[in-house]
């Protein structure tokens, strides 16, 4: 007789798993409050919420720029809640992060900015930042070039970073994050200081990376229309808590009011400014 018991289906290990995560800053502010969130590799998640809702603090916990106060945080099944030192640097290497202000080295060329993120693979080069390009191998430079190609700005490789427009600088920041060969992409208001067209180009670039490299993306956004246009899932935060987690089609006016409360007009003001 055949054994008809089916083997248990193996669930994929989530890219990010936060369980009852809390971040309380030394001044007593509870920025992240009992957050439980699971993100799989095939997900592009938009996080929305008013200023001070805890969006950045959540992202900073996930790449361990800050240490969660309690709860657990796993990346691909590895518990990173309490790690320290070299282990934190290893984890950050796996997490590509981009910020509103691009954080490029202004006086370096575009290519050098991308190569900076290869330093963790070439620790002997740390300290050679001023003459970076010369010290990297041909392979490394070609790889950095490919990252620039992927975001469509390889023609700017030898231009100084501070001569670029905001949208171009953000794409350099994306290429730099790509060059570290990340397994997860986090973006903290990547389009907040961009005009609508540049914002669209940057969001398209993030989506293209998500789709071609199968990297999960978690992006904090102030613009509801961008959040719903690109996110396959919308996470709404208020006062440190996730109060809604819905597909874009489920983000009703009532939920938006819950998330933004009395400041709902701010969100729509920003929306109108972007239209
Ligand atoms: N280093 C810090 N020390 C103390 N409090 C902080 C610190 N960083 C953030 N906070 C506080 O934590 C709360 C959440 O801040 P956070 O920056 O995470 O919100 P946010 O949703 O990203 O806001 P915004 O949309 O304005 O970027 C706020 O009350 C903020 O003042
Ligand atoms: Mg923020």
Shape: globular
Bound molecules: adenosine-5'-triphosphate, magnesium ion
CATH class: Alpha Beta
Largest sheet: 6 strands, mixed
CATH topology assignment: Rossmann fold
* Helix percentage: 25-40%
Unreliable parts: 271-275
CATH superfamily: P-loop containing nucleotide triphosphate hydrolases
Task: Count helical runs.
Answer: 10
The CA-CA distance between the termini, in Å, is 67 Å
Mean pLDDT: 90
Taken together, the total number of domains comes to 1
Secondary-structure-based class equals alpha/beta
Taking strands numbered 1, 2, ... along the chain, how are they ordered across the largest sheet? Answer: 6-7-8-3-9-10
Please give the radius of gyration in angstroms: 20 Å
What string gives the helices and strands in order? EEEHEEHEHHHHEHEHEEHH
Number of strands: 10
Q: Beta-strand level of the residues, as a percent range?
A: 15-25%
Any idea what the CATH architecture is? 3-Layer(aba) Sandwich
